[in-house]
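Q: what sequence does this backbone want?
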């Protein structure tokens, strides 16, 4: 079976997971919606160089999981976020056009084959992108670039008790990076494949606090664009191990108010040789849809 057919099969299962009402009962579902807003404003008479701003972020995080057959478990994870910052001119006190502050589309479908052994075979498909590509001011592109990762290998629950779970998997991954680069009319496609390690952590620290983490390591073994860098200092950068480490601590202040502390560290030598760090601390409204 070709990679495209495998992708379509898993994508179909992922769509099934998003519409559990159309099938028999038994889906474990959770979907949290959140909104955080920060605002400050100064009048025209204010002096000192201060400038007002308004920042907002909307997010949705969900898990749809079911034991589809006695040996096959499907888990679909949804992570969506988008936010903007509106800034005020220090001199004129007028408001500029909003700039993007947060943008994330992360959809993953993980299938585990429970064969009652020490290690569990798995297959997975992950789609990563952003809602708005604003890297070119006069030409906005939506859902660009797109990264599709198809992987298969062996997994094991390192620890599983009640709602706490540490799942680690190791396998081979094939990646397709699709970029609709302006002004080209045809999308650029770069492919690579290699060894991938993923560890997912979910821990309930108390009745009001929880932690989720994900550590992804990826070592490319081949890269379709390697000839483009031949003879350049960055010729072998694609061979370096990529790291993506996400950490999120959530504390519930009340039924609808949460504090979320999020830290992400990414290392991709082709993008930055020192890595990239993102840290956010937010207080906002949250609503548990189900």
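A:
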């Amino acid at each position: 079976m070709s990679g495209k057919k495998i992708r379509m099969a898993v994508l179909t299962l992922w769509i099934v997971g998003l519409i559990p009402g159309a099938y028999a009962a038994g889906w474990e579902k959770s979907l949290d919606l959140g909104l955080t807003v920060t605002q400050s404003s100064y009048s025209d008479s204010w002096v000192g160089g201060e400038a007002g701003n308004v920042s907002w972020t909307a997010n949705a995080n969900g898990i749809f999981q079911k034991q589809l057959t006695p040996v096959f478990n499907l888990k679909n994870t949804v992570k969506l976020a988008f936010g903007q910052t509106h800034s005020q001119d220090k001199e004129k006190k007028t408001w500029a056009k909003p700039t993007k502050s947060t943008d994330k589309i992360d959809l993953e479908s993980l299938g585990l084959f429970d064969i009652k052994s020490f290690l569990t075979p798995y297959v997975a498909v992950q789609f990563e992108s952003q809602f708005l590509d604003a890297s070119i001011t006069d030409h906005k592109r939506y859902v660009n670039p797109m990264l599709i990762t198809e992987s298969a290998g062996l997994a094991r629950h390192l620890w599983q008790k009640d709602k706490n779970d540490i799942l680690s998997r190791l396998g081979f991954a094939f990646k397709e990076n699709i970029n609709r680069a302006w002004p080209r009319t045809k999308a650029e496609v770069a492919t690579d494949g290699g060894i991938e390690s993923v560890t997912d952590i979910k821990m309930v620290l108390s009745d009001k606090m929880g932690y989720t983490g994900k550590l992804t390591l990826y070592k490319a073994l081949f890269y379709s664009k390697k000839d483009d860098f031949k003879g350049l200092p960055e010729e072998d950068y694609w061979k370096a191990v990529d790291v993506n480490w996400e950490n999120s601590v959530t504390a519930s202040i009340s039924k609808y108010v949460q504090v979320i502390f999020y830290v992400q560290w990414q290392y991709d030598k082709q993008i930055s040789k020192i890595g990239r760090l993102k840290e956010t601390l937010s207080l906002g409204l949250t609503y548990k849809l189900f």
